[in-house]
């Protein structure tokens, strides 16, 4: 098979891939599909123009064709960044800019050998960027990414060897270039291998999305009950001597049914979403927050003592209380009650923690709602609230011991 036929086959394959990727983008609307599809379309166009050398003007088959190829490389790089959910940056244009800049130099533009060297240098720059993007990620697909980077590295080496041979032999055309096969066949192999690796990356990404959907609440985006259970087992095994306890914080939005009845279910959904944002933000990576179902939420985290757990629950309660949720024509203020249960991490039993936290939550509701209660093993005790200072405390409140005094100081600091 001569090199022109090979280039035309290559162009047809690239165009077919472009159509497939565009079709995927049409249904999923992921930007990287559009970038990769456009990259393959331009790549196919550029390769086809290269194959038509001699049948079309040299300016088109050389300058335009290769510029198109390197714009395609830039789109592939952009697609990789979008795949990793990173912003597209200006360095995606480096391969095309190298080629365009070289074409302004007469010794390069007028010499086939020098153009070959320039082409390979521009291609190596693009491949080096892709390799860097692929290997810097240590996520679940790191093995596949490294395989893909390995195939691209083979192409990088082949381009380097081709540039060296062109410098040494000074060919005047593809027919007289002894390294034409060196450029084409490794490129064809890596092209196919790269596509297979990319397909595996997409499959692994789809599997990750399905796993995430299985443990995520579709309305609020926080963990669901199953997700919280999975995270509980991870927290229990975590070696963290300075935080020996697991705390389970059980939240229930007060009078939520009245919000739905008065303002509608859309407003109720807005309240659920707003509280989920409050819960996630208040934890700041210290634990996990999720929706148990309906208007019930929970958080699990490692803590040093009862005071730390109560401080976090109170921070969430107070933050929600001060917030006005605007949805449509409604301005909604809502409160939440919380129940807390704790256990030593190594001995923690999720069912027992849930039961204890639920009893504490019931005590908070019975004591007037908009409160936090802690299960102390014997009975649930109401946490003194900084927004109720001066009011008569409920009979079940904690005694004013050192822990309560520390809790009040922490809560006061959080209020400032």
TrEMBL record:
Q: Which UniProt keywords apply?
A: Membrane, Transmembrane, Transmembrane helix
Q: Which reaction does it catalyse?
A: 2 GTP = 3',3'-c-di-GMP + 2 diphosphate
Entry annotated with the keyword Transmembrane helix: yes
Instruction: Tell me where in this chain the GGDEF domain is found.
Output: 244-377
This protein's record includes keyword Transmembrane helix: yes
Task: Cite the InterPro entries for this sequence.
Answer: Diguanylate_Cyclase, GGDEF_dom, Nucleotide_cyclase, Rev_trsase/Diguanyl_cyclase
Q: Where are the transmembrane segments?
A: 6-26, 33-53, 59-81, 88-105, 117-135, 147-168, 180-202
EC numbers? 2.7.7.65
Question: How is this protein named in the record?
Answer: diguanylate cyclase
Provenance organism: Rhizobium puerariae
**Organismal lineage:** Bacteria, Pseudomonadati, Pseudomonadota, Alphaproteobacteria, Hyphomicrobiales
């Amino acid at each position: 098979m001569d090199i022109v036929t090979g280039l035309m086959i290559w162009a047809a394959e690239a165009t077919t891939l472009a159509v497939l990727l565009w079709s995927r983008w049409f249904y999923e609307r992921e930007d990287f599909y559009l970038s990769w599809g456009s990259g393959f379309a331009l790549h196919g166009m550029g390769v086809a123009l290269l194959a038509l050398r001699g049948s079309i003007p040299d300016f088109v088959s050389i300058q335009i064709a290769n510029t198109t190829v390197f714009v395609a490389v830039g789109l592939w790089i952009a697609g990789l960044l979008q795949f990793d959910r990173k912003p597209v940056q200006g360095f995606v244009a480096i391969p095309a800019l190298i080629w365009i800049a070289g074409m302004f130099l007469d010794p390069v533009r007028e010499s086939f050998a020098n153009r070959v060297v320039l082409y390979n240098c521009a291609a190596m720059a693009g491949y080096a960027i892709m390799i860097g993007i692929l290997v810097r990620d240590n996520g679940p697909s790191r093995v596949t990414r490294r395989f893909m980077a390995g195939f691209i590295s083979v192409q990088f080496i082949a381009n380097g060897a081709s540039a060296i041979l062109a410098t040494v032999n000074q060919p005047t055309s593809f027919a007289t270039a002894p390294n034409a096969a060196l450029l084409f066949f490794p490129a064809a192999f890596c092209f196919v291998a790269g596509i297979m690796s990319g397909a595996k990356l997409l499959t692994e990404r789809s599997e990750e999305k399905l796993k995430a959907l299985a443990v995520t609440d579709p309305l609020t985006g926080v963990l669901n009950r199953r997700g919280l259970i999975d995270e509980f087992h991870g927290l229990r095994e975590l070696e963290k001597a300075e935080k020996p306890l697991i705390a389970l914080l059980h939240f229930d939005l007060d009078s939520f049914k009245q919000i739905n009845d008065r303002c509608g279910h859309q407003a109720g959904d807005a309240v659920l979403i707003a509280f989920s944002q409050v819960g996630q933000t208040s934890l700041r990576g210290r634990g996990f927050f999720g929706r148990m179902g309906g208007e019930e939420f929970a958080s699990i985290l490692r803590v040093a003592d009862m005071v730390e757990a109560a401080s976090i629950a109170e921070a969430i309660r107070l933050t929600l209380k001060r917030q006005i949720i605007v949805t449509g024509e409604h301005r909604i203020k809502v409160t939440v009650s919380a129940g807390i249960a704790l256990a030593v991490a190594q001995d923690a039993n999720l069912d027992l923690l849930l039961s204890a936290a639920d009893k504490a939550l019931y005590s908070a509701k019975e004591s007037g709602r908009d409160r936090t209660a802690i299960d102390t093993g014997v009975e649930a005790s109401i946490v003194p609230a900084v927004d109720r200072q001066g009011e008569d405390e409920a009979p079940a409140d904690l005694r004013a011991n050192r822990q309560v005094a520390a809790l009040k100081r922490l809560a006061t600091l959080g209020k400032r």
